[in-house]
Every structure is written in C-alpha cells, then in structure tokens.
Write a structure and sequence with these properties.
Radius of gyration: 20 Å
Helix content: 40-55%
Strand order of the largest sheet: 2-1-3
Structural class: alpha/beta
Number of helices: 5
Order of helices and strands: HEHHEHEH
Largest sheet: 3 strands, parallel
Distance between the termini: 48 Å
Length: about 110
C-alpha cells in the first residue's frame, strides 16, 4: 500500500475539489438595497453612484443583476422592510441591527 505524504494528500484533495467546481450563479436577478442619508452610508452611496454591484456581478459571470436602491431613514422603517421581505440588504446602525437580529433569530430571514 503506497504511503501518502502531506503534499500528495493536499494535491489529491485540491484536484478533487477542482473537478466539482461550478461557476457562480445568482439566485435572483434583482437585489433590493436600502440606506439612510448620513455620511455613515457613504460606501453604499458610492456603490450606487458607480454601479459597482452590477459591474462586479457581470465580472463574476452572474449575468445582469438589477439593483433597486431605496433611501429610507430610521432603523424602525428599515427593520420593518427587512422583516416583510421587501429588502435584501440594509444599511443600518448597531442598535437597529441588534433589534433585527433578535427578531429574525431562527427564521428564514436570519
């Protein structure tokens, strides 16, 4: 019986994993994102202005992704929209996140 060294084992595992590789696919063609008005949301504002999500999705081979931006302010409004399933991604502060995390623990929205 041949002895497998660490390098041979890693090579075999890497080859096996590469054979099962599938290209990325988007589960949906629409992404709904919300953010507020303050400077804390600047990264999301730049992403919206420069269409970075659409560009990266195309670059990753996910096809055309339609991004719908909603500007809502206030953790309560955004939390309600997330719980209702009207948003996929929300930019909120820590207190709003903690409330949302508590309300979704163990549910499909988690």
């Amino acid at each position: 019986m041949p002895v497998l060294t660490r390098r041979k084992t890693i090579a075999v595992a890497t080859t096996a994993a590469a054979m099962n590789f599938h290209p990325a696919r988007a589960a949906t063609a629409r992404l709904r994102i919300s953010h507020g008005y303050s400077i804390g949301y600047l990264p999301l504002m730049v992403m919206r202005d420069q269409s970075l999500i659409e560009k990266q999705a195309t670059k990753a081979g996910l096809g055309t992704v339609q991004v719908e931006w909603r500007i809502e302010d206030g953790g309560n409004n955004i939390n309600d929209a997330m719980l209702a399933g009207a948003l996929d991604i929300a930019g909120i502060g820590i207190p709003g996140y903690l409330v949302l995390r508590d309300r979704t623990l163990g549910r499909k929205q988690e």
